Structures are given as structure tokens and as C-alpha cells.
Amino acid sequence: MTAQLRAGQNDMLAPAHEWFASHGWAPFAFQQDVWKAYLAATSGLVHAATGTGKTLAAWWGPLLEYLIENRTSGAAPAVPLRVLWITPLRALASDTAGALQQPVSDIGLPWTIETRTGDTAPSTRSRQSRRLPTALVTTPESLSLLLSRENASSQFTNLRVVVVDEWHELMGTKRGVQTELALAHLRTMCPQLRTWGLSATIGNIEEARRTLIGRQARKSTIVRGVEPKRIIVDSLIPPVIERFPWAGHLGTQMVSQVIQAIEEGNTSIVFTNTRSQTEIWYQAILAHRPEWAGTIALHHGSLDRKTRDWVEDGLREERLRCVVATSSLDLGVDFSPVDRVLQIGSPKGIARITQRAGRSGHRPGASSRITCVPTHTLELLEVAAARDGVEAGSIESRCPVSRPLDVLAQHVVTMAVGDGFIPAELVREVRTTEAYHDLPDDEWEWVLSFVSNGGDALKGYPEYSKVTPDADGRWRVTDRTIARRHRMAIGTIVSDADIVVQYLRGKRLGTVEESFIARLRQGDRFVFAGTPVEFVRVRDMVAWVRRAPDVKSIIPRWMGSRLPLSGELAAALRARLGEAAAGIFRDAEMEALHPILDVQGKWSRIPAADELLIERVHSREGFHLFFFPFEGRLVHEGLAALFAWRISRIKPISFSLSSNDYGFELLSPDEPPLHEALANGLLDASNLLDDIPASLNATEMARRQFREIARVAGLVFPGFPRSGKTARQLQASSGLFFDVFQRYDAGNMLLSQAHREVLERQLERTRLGTTLQRLSSARVIITAPKRTPPLAFPLLVDRNRQRVSSEKLGDRVRRLQRTLERAAGKPVER
Amino acid sequence: MTALDCNDAPIDVRGEIITLLPERAAFWHRTATLLVADPHWGKAATFRASGIPVPSGTTRDAVDRLASAATRTLARRIVFLGDLLHAREGRSARMFESLAEWRLSNTGLEVVLVRGNHDRRAGDPPGELKIDCVNAPYLDGPFIFTHHPIKDEHGYVIAGHVHPGITLRGPARQRERLPCFFFGSDYGILPAFGDFTGLADVEPAEGDRVYAVADRGIMQVY
């Protein structure tokens, strides 16, 4: 680049430098790199830790561009939509809008900045449907909704850039695919559109760029943000480690140590892994320090917007001493770091612990520190392993989702509801996304026929039509009810329908998944947002509650709470156990675990890195086989189904299965032929292509996976907020759909998608294969402990089970009948 | 004589013999009556008409199942215990044609529908099907046929509506969930006849009889 040009470019960047200077800051080199690239019409991906200036890196490009284009103009009229800012959590939208507003107000640009999410008020929505702001902060769902409007294409004519915030959060999910499809459509409408992604550092950053930018030929680049701070991982060690940690379960026993840690600083965040744990720990801390009421707060994605705003402001202004939070505070929200970060329970992944640690450490150049609090003594092992992983820099990858047909079917209907589409044009556009670049013709044809005649290639479904071509060959949805229902369903891509929790007289508390509310009966109590409430009834998608007298009640158990151990962390953990097997205990965590591992060693064995430990235990419940591959729960679920199926080939037998991050259990009423199975290739990595689908059919896994697919593809819909009875006749569970498809339309590709998703996403087929290869060359150690050793205990008490059987249903029922007869001899337990 | 087989389960209800059939229907011997609850015909069609793709075939299979149960029991009468049709939107000509075809070849059969909550919105079946539609309760002998299982002091209630299912638990955490017949002290509930219907668990108390439908047989489980 010539000196002259460089000088010209510096001129162009001058307003940004001035603005930074006016706040006493200087822009980072990476921010300037992003601005220059943006002005040179390049797209790209910026990756760095949270809170390191990525927002301003992406934002000043469009601002500078506007300033260059409008050098001379004085008081300009409001500028139409130029920037779309996509954020994965609607909780982040208002914060982001605030951060974007600041420079715009400071330099007095005629730009409007607004949000549009599920939280947006109807009045704002209707204003936006007449005129969109200059910059719109929105979620993938709300963007799809914008595309489903009839005048969609005319809204985006001035659009210059789409910024996708927290792209690493989105890209491994179906919402990421939804975003890819929306981006592809926006690029068709505005060929000059640039795309910028903001991401945490992940293992496959190049793939993240490709997935974001798509396959249209475009200039794009990767910019690395500021170097991460050094991270210190330590833990609070329980003062007394029980030698018989039956469940090893500590619950909130550690609360006084946690309080001590909180008192060491002015501000703290206590991270938990689930929303229910946030409620539990909030209560526990308050119970020990009642005088902290008002200075400690809760933060999770289910809380109402106003409450979240209050909490976030409180942290910024240091009004709050401590916030108990889930991943809703991992992301976005720009506030200065706090003094202490605590992590309740295992972080389950190295990227996650890095991200959370980044919330601590005030001084520039200082290191970040995260203190882990075990909820189960064995979690100390995971902390030690996580430290190894952080030191080795082995950050996990996020695996993008490959061509999910449910998301495509949803998108096709969205396009038909909006301006309509020409199939040949749409498929060309769809194939520019990374997710569908290899979409085969037959799958595309199937999706088209699925939304037009039901997808049965031979006959088509009678009385059914959703999308139909008009006279010009443009495919549209003409039925207004169907269009309305589709718009309702777009928002449900990730979770169950959310139900609003509200007091009988007035105040809205937040939302909770329908599946939780469905299990409640009138009078049941639960804690929500730190307040005990009593369930009264559900009406019109609102769960009405009243204040309950005290806290001795149940806690909401939200879905998606069981995070699996990442592959990277699992490998580090095996290494640590291997050391323990060799008698090496090199830090405080391992030292603390010593007594438990001693019991494990005495009663059974501590498996070395090259060993596969199998424990057989006979109890009143039946015959237990415990396997310990230490590969994470997802892989174990697949292995459990596979092993159960392979053993059941040898003789008719029924198993119930449980899995966790360390291993899995096969439980049966009769003794399983383990040695025969081992001799017949139980651990073989061959024949997987046949054996895995067969073992999946034997479990309910595909049926379970179908829940999400049925929702995304619009089979199960959340119901209209106030339609009352008419919607009820359209309610059927996804399980029923699954059964009916299997029986009457076995070629339905949503069924094959369910199988594919179980294999690839849920069970991580590639990891399953590598694991089997490792296991088949491992030394198999079979022990027969008299009582259940520490590693096996958590599996024993797990009630969340799959089943595999090679017995006839009639035989199984007959055995259950016998049990009942025996039980009938004794007084009935109730 | 009726052609029952070993998979059927005759039981005594208030001195009458009722045989529970794996077709998910019951047969009252003295009056040669086939009792059927909750067919929900046209449910899948209702979904399709509303833009939700569900394959067809569920209603056709159910009609075949009904025909075979009626034939092998030599039934002279069928009593539907409500929810014959699922919804107005599901009233397709095609479905009524297949029903009419079966009805034409069984003109000697008396067919009664005791209306249920769905029938009120869905409307009565067309006249050419020759189904007598009556409001609950419908009394005959010791029995009160109705849709909603509610105690009635004038007789023993036989009803549907609930779509009863039972979860059986056994050693080694084994578990099965199956459709069932439920006979309590005041009323009996038949399983839903329709295929595209769910289950609601019943919790038997002391003295209740519960018969699960498993594979092609009936098994008493409580």
C-alpha cells in the first residue's frame, strides 16, 4: 500500500480516533484492521474474548462509511435500515443497542437504533412495520419473521452490513443454520452486502468464517482480537472429604466457603450450569447472609427483561455485591470485569471456563481467575483436567449442523409466506450456505413436496396443501391461518414453547418451558426468580401463580440442563486418572480426591489411561454392568445402546441404561453374558454402520430426537396465545407423529433426519468410532466389587434411563405381572 | 357362537360377561354388543386440512380393525362411547366413503353413537351411515353407556374419553407403558380405539381391575 493511500485511509478513520480520544481511549490495532477491511468492502470474522472491544470494531466500520458518504450534508432526515445486528440471546439486545447508541449520540448522527425481539412491544413493532430504524438489533427468529412479511424485499434495499454477534454460540445449532439461510436470502436481495461475525476464540475458527460468509464468492478475512489474559483456575476444596461419598454429592454444603470468597472482593459473579442451580444457590447465599438482601441478584435467560436490566445495571454501577448467573452472563453484556468469578459445578468444557474466567480481572494485563466450587467431589477431577486443558490451549471446536431438513422446510415456508419464491432460484440460494452446499436434488425435491403435498412421493397426502405455486410459478402460502400459525412457530426453533409466569394480580415474572408447567398441579410450589410461588392454573399461554409462604418447595428443572463433558476435557481427565492410578497426585484437587480414589482402588480399580474398566455388581435390583470409557455422556449414551444391543443378540434379555460423563451402566433382571459378548466382538469398531442404527431403533433415542424436529418442521406448534379451544384439536405429541410416520410413511425424510441427528449430533458418530477403536485395543479389566464403588455410584442412582430389549413385549409384561403379584403378597407401598 | 380366541379376556362386570379384545374394543355377550371408545376418525385429516402434514391411513386401518372385530365376534350392535369424529375440519368425503362401503355390507348391524365432547363440534356422521346418534347417558341392562367416566347411581358406567394407559414397573428398572382397560367400582373405561391418539396414565386403587393391551393379547396387570 502506498504512503498516500495509507494517509487517505487514516483520514477516513479520523472520526473514530477522535471519538475514542474523547473518552480517553485509543483504538486497538485489531479494531482499526476491521474498519479498514470493512471500508474495503470485505466481510470477516473477529474473534477474541468477551468484553474486549469487538462491538466497537464491527460498529465503527458502518459509521465511518456513512460519514464518508455524507461528508457535506447538514441536518439529514432519518436514515433507513443500513445495519442488521443479530444477537443469539434476546436478553442481550437492549444492552447491545445501548452500546451502539453511544457513539451515534456523541457525534450526532441522524441514525435511529432499535431492537426487535420477542420482547418488543406491539406499538414498536407496528411502527417498525412502517419504517425500520437505521440499525436494528434482532435475533435469528425475529429476522426470519421480518423475511416472512409480504413486502420483505423492499425493506432491505439500503442494507450495508449484517453483524452476527456471538457467532460461536449460534453456529453449532439449528438457529445458526436458520441464520445462514436468512443471510443467504439477504445477500440475494442486496448483492453488495457485507457480513461480519463476532466470535469467541474456538478450535475451528476457519470453519466458523466459512459458515458465516457462505459460498458466494466474496472477500473475507479473519481478525484476531486482543490476546487473552492469562487464566488461573483454582477451586474451593471441601474441608472434609467423606471416604464414602455415596453420591459424592455436596449440594450447597460449600456455601460458607463461597460466601468467604465473595467477601474477598467488591463484586463477584457466581456462575452455575443450570437455571435451577442459580435459584438454589441464590437461596442458599441469602439464607446465610440475610443482610445481603438487595445487594445480591439472580440473572438467567428466563427472567423478565426489566429484572435483567436492573441486574446488569447493578453490576456496572457496583450496586450489587454478587450476581448468581447462568450462561446468560457469559455473553455480550459489556460491563467492567468483577473482582471474583466463581463457577459452581464442573465447567464441562475448556472454552466455557476460559470465557467465564474472562469476566474477572480489573487491571489491564492482569490475569483472570476463576474459582471452581465442586457440587460433587468427583468434579474436582474435572477441575484439575480443565486446568490442564486451559494451559495446553486446547479450546473446543463448534461443529456446524449439516443440512437439517426441518430447518429447511421451515425456511421454505417462511419464503412462501413472505414474497413467495421460484424453486430453482431458491435452491440456488440455499446451496450458497455452508449447511446446504451439498444438498442433493432428491432432498430438495422432498422438502418441496413436504410443504406442498405432504412428502409422500407416490400419493401425496389428501386434503393437505400448505404451499402452492401461483399462475406465475411463484410458490406461496395463501391460507392466512396457515401463514399466521407458521409465524408463531418460527420462534420455537430451539426450545419448548415458553409460558409466561405471572402473578394473579399483575406482575410478570418471566418465562418457563411448557414441559415444566405441564407437570405441575394446582397448589404445587416452586421458586422462580428467587421468589417462592404457588401454581394456580395455565390459561392462554400464561401460568398464573400467587406468592407462596416459604421456600420449602420444588425448584424449576429447565430443559437442556445436562451439559456433556467436551472431548478435550474428557481426554485431559483420562490423563489425570491415569496419573492417579500410578500414584501421582500433583495438586490440591487430586490430593483432596485421594481418599475416594483409594476406596475406588481398593474395592475395584482406578483405571489407567490404556485400560477399560468394567465393574459387575449384583444387587437386589438386578445385575449391573458398569463401563468406564471416560468420553463424555453423549458418547456413552451411544455406546450403552450399542453394547446393550450387541449383548441382547446373544440371548433374550432386557436392559435399562444410564449414562454420565464417566461411564454407563447396563442393568438387567438376568445375568448378562458378558464374557461371551466380549469374545464375540462387543468392543469391535467394525460393523458400526449396521449395528448403530439397529441399536438406535432398539432405544427411544430417535423418537426423542424427533421432538425438536417435529417442532421446527411445524408439526407440533405452540398454539395461539388466545385461541383457546380451537387449537386443542390440533394437538398431538411428537411421539405420536413419529409412530404414525413410521407406520404410514416410512420414507418420510424427517424420520431419517431424526436418525442422522442422533448419530451425528447427539452421539457424535466420529467420536463413537474413535472411542471404540481406543477401547478395542485397551486392556479390559473386569472387577466384581461387593458394593458399588465411588465411580459407579452416580450411575446407579440415575433415574433418567433408556431401554433396550430383545425379549417379546408379552414376555416382558408377564415378568412385570409376576413382580406385581409378589408385591401384592405384602402390604401395598404407597 | 362367537369366535373368540385365547388372546381375548372374558371378565365379569355386574354379572354380565364382557370380553376385552386386543383390537381395543370390548364385547358384551348377552346382547352381542361391540363397545368402542374414542375412534377420533378424521383426526389426521383435520391436521392435514390445517396445513400440518400427517400421513393418511390411520382411519382406514381403524375401520378395518373395527370390521374384523365385529365379524369375528358376530356382533349385532356396535355402541360408540363418544368421539367418533375428531373435528369438523376432518370430515372428508374420502373417509365417509370408506365407512359407507363397510356399512353397506353390514346392514344388519345396529350402530349407536353416544355423543362425546368432540362429536358436539364435529357434528354427527352423515345419515347414509345409519348411525343412531344419542346424547349420553344411553342405558341398557345394568350399564350406563356414556362418554365421560362419572359415577352414576343408576347403574355401572362404561365410558371412554380418558384414553387410559398404564405404566408397569418391574425389577432392574424395567418399564412398559401400554393402553389399557380400566374397571373400577363405579365405572369402566375403554382404551381409545383410534391409532393417532395418546395415552393418559391411570392410577389403580385397591379393588380396581386393569387389563393392558400388549402385542396381540390382553393381560390383567392389576
Description:
- The complex is a heterodimer of chains A (830) and B (222).
- Chain A has 830 residues and is an alpha/beta fold.
- Helices cover 43% and strands 16% of the residues of chain A.
- Chain A is globular, with a radius of gyration of 28 Å.
- In chain A, helix 11 crosses helix 12.
- Chain A has 31 helices and 26 strands.
- A 7-stranded parallel β-sheet of chain A has the order 3-4-2-5-6-1-7, with helices on both faces.
- Chain B is of the alpha/beta class.
- Chain B has 4 helices and 16 strands.
- In chain B, the strands form 2 sheets. In chain B, strands 8, 9, 10, 11, 12, 13, 14, 15 and 16 form a 9-stranded mixed β-sheet that branches. A 7-stranded mixed β-sheet of chain B has the order 1-2-3-4-5-6-7, covered by helices on one side.
- In chain B, a hairpin with a 3-residue loop joins strand 2 (16-21) and strand 3 (25-28).
- Chain B is globular.
- The mean pLDDT of chain B is 90.
- The interface between A and B is large, with 55 and 46 residues.
**DSSP summary: helix tally of chain A:** 31
- Rg value of chain B: 17 Å
Oligomer designation:
heterodimer
Please state the average pLDDT score of chain B. Answer: 90
Taking the sheet with the most strands of chain A, its summary is:
7 strands, parallel
- Taken as a percent bin, the fraction of beta residues of chain A is 15-25%
Largest interface: A-B, 55 and 46 residues
- Give the number of DSSP strands of chain A: 26
Largest sheet of chain B: 9 strands, mixed
Poorly predicted regions of chain B: none
Overall shape of chain A: globular
What portion of the residues of chain B fall into strands of 2 or more residues? 25-35%
Sheet with most strands: strand arrangement of chain A? 3-4-2-5-6-1-7
Shape of chain B: globular
